[in-house]
Amino acid sequence: MNIQKVTFTNKDEEQLAGRLELPLNQKPHNFVIFAHCFTCTKNLTAVKNIGRALTDSGFGVLRFDFTGLGESEGDFENTNFSGNVDDLVEAANFLEKNFKAPTLIIGHSLGGTAAIFAAAKIPSIKAVAVVNAPSHPSHVLHLLKESKQEITRNGKAKVNLGGIDFTIKKQFLDDLEDKSLLKIVSNLKKALLILHSPQDNIVGINNAEEIYIAAHHPKSFVSLDGVDHLLSNKEDSKYVGQVIAGWASRYLKIPAGVSVKSKSKVAASLSNDEKFTTYLKLGDHNLISDEPTSFGGNNFGPSPYEFLSAGLAACTVMTIQMYAKRKKWNVEKVTCHINYTKDHAIDCELCEEDSAKIDTFTREISIDGELTDEQKKRILWIADKCPVHKTLHTKTQVITTLL
User: Is 260 a domain residue?
Assistant: First the structure.
């Protein structure tokens, strides 16, 4: 996976620590901001799983720690809900300045509430998805229980949340009470997806109902049946990411995959702004070839020599299995490992030149099945008869014309 450590500053010039996760095989078609839950961090497993499901669908995802949490600077006791919203706006500014303006914002729990407030302030956001989000920011006050009276009386108190002590000040409570999510939702006019578990015993399902009723169309609801509040089951969080990716494609501009038009069985196309990222037509299939980043490429796909090595490996296992089936031998699985190098030439016409090198494919074959030594020896012999192997050993010609 392609994960970059990033930092940006909040409105008080304090550094916020984030992770920008990018697709492995393409440039991101859209960027996403993720807002984590109250007192959580960017490294919550559910946050990472949702993000990876989105990158698998071509999105670039920024997750970061709110001020005073995780690796970010600042004191949590001096923060409030409005500060979290401001952090999300700064995250959008960072993406717009350094990559591309975000079009989708996702929030979990109180982060979902903050995401809606932030979406109203970020013009580039076209779609909003919230997961197990409260319909009122002040809903989080129930987590403070008896500490609320101490905070009101003394101006602050130490509260244990999830096994960690946090200092909560009265200004935090006042800020929560002052915010009306339903009023913001009713004026949002952006595509909204609400995902909520009927079994959520921290933020009840009635919160999703209130948000849905207040929102304008287009709005959607997905029931996360059997899911806990923190999405602690890996499959649940992956599902949430996949649902959001599919839903968002309805409201965001996602370019169609590049295809090479050609009457030939195999064709390749490379634009001058793509470094080495080359689009291929291989029969009925569209693939990408590239070079590693160390060579100046984007590493979005295999290199040309990796494709060549793959052709030899695939042809080898196909030939062996075809031969074994014809002989009715017990070969359950064949695996072929190929390494490619340029080695100094041995026993060739160019040996007299010190710099002469020869293309070398090192092939290793493993077989699952019960075979005699004689049968194994025969399989090694037949591997050398595979068509691609024979082509590599035959004098070939490439006839080139300009269209």
Answer: no
Question: CATH no. for residue 223?
Answer: 3.40.50.1820
User: What is the number of structural domains in the chain?
Assistant: 2
Residue ending a domain, choose from 215, 232, 248:
248
Residue closest to 38 by CA, chosen among 89, 113, 91 = 113
Cβ atoms < 10 Å from Cβ of 183: 10
**Token pair 């990222």: residue:** 277
Q: Which two tokens stand for residue 176?
A: 């929560």
Q: Is residue 261 part of a domain?
A: no
- Identify the domain containing residue 17 by its residue range: 2-138+179-248
Selection from 45, 38, 26, 33 nearest residue 69 by Cα: 38
Does the predicted TM-score (pTM) go above 0.90?
Answer: no
The greatest distance separating any two alpha carbons of the chain, rounded to the nearest whole angstrom, comes to 93
Taking the C-alpha atoms of residue 127 and residue 247, their distance in angstroms, rounded to an integer, is 9
Which of 140-149, 277-286, 340-349 shows the lowest per-residue confidence on average (mean pLDDT)? 340-349
pLDDT at 387: 95
Cα 117 to Cα 176: distance, rounded to the nearest angstrom: 12
- Show the tokens assigned to 344: 């100094």
**Mean pLDDT of the chain, nearest integer:** 91
pLDDT value for 111: 94
Query: What's phi and psi for 352, nearest 5 deg?
Result: -70, -15
Summarised one tens digit per residue, pLDDT across range 123-173 is 999 999 999 999 988 877 776 776 778 878 888 777 765 566 777 878 877
The pLDDT of residue 243 is 98
Q: What is the mean pLDDT of residues 48-65?
A: 96
Does a structural domain hold residue 117?
Answer: yes
Nearest of 6, 56, 181, 161 to residue 111 by alpha carbon: 181
Query: Are 50 and 118 members of one domain?
Result: yes
| Residue 191 within any structural domain of the chain | yes
């905070």: which residue's tokens? 151
318 and 232 part of one domain: no
pLDDT per residue over 199-212, tens digit each?
A: 999 899 999 999 99
Beta strands in 115-224, from DSSP E residues, in sequence order: 127-131, 156-161, 164-169, 191-196, 219-223
Q: 120 and 218 share a domain? A: yes
